[in-house]
TrEMBL record:
UniProt GO BP: regulation of DNA-templated transcription
Domain of life (superkingdom): Bacteria
Name of the protein described by the UniProt record: Polyhydroxyalkanoate synthesis repressor PhaR
Ranges of residues in domain PHB accumulation regulatory: 70-106
Pfam family, any one: PHB_acc
Length: 169
């Protein structure tokens, strides 16, 4: 297993990625998280691991930008656990709950991929073609019977007079 990628945070608040020998932004760190890259952020002076603080900063910015994940009530509950006798258990509980949620999400996506297939647009296209075929067959039947499809009463009567061919719809 390879070592974690090291990102150094300097006193000027800049982040330096030692793997690519370049300064990066919080957005770049977010991209690393999304790519599931193994990394640590360390204070350049003290070599202290400050990864959690950087991740919290990214979460804070995300929460302020758009549709937040954490409601005010959820945040209040989390704050109340600090200093509580159950504080140690809360982190573990949240971690396991999120992992269970991620596992369920992965399972649902896999099942949808198996049901729909690799190309959901093809499924929609096939469904549209199938519906068009049904519509054309119904129109052909109505014209053969001499019924104007725009006349709803005649269409309904034709539907009622149609013999049951043993197929359920």
């Amino acid at each position: 297993m390879s070592e974690s990628r090291i990102i150094k945070k300097y006193p000027n608040r800049r982040l330096y990625d030692t793997a690519i020998s370049s300064y990066i932004t919080l957005e770049d760190v977010k991209r690393l998280v999304l790519e599931r890259a193994d990394f640590r952020v360390v204070d350049a002076r003290s070599n202290e691991d400050i990864t959690r603080g950087i991740l919290l900063q990214i979460i804070s910015e995300q929460e302020e930008q758009g549709n937040p994940i954490f409601t005010t009530e959820v945040l209040a509950h989390i704050i109340r656990f600090y200093g509580d006798t159950l504080q140690g258990m809360m982190g573990s509980y949240l971690e396991k709950s999120l992992q269970a949620f991620v596992d369920q999400q992965h399972l649902v996506r896999e099942q949808m991929r198996n049901i729909i297939g690799a190309n959901p647009l093809q499924v929609i296209s096939d469904l549209a073609e199938h519906n068009l075929s049904i519509w054309q067959k119904m129109n052909e039947r109505l014209y053969k019977q001499g019924i104007d499809p725009s006349n709803r009463a005649a269409v309904k009567a034709a539907e009622l007079d149609k013999p049951d061919d043993g197929h359920k719809k």
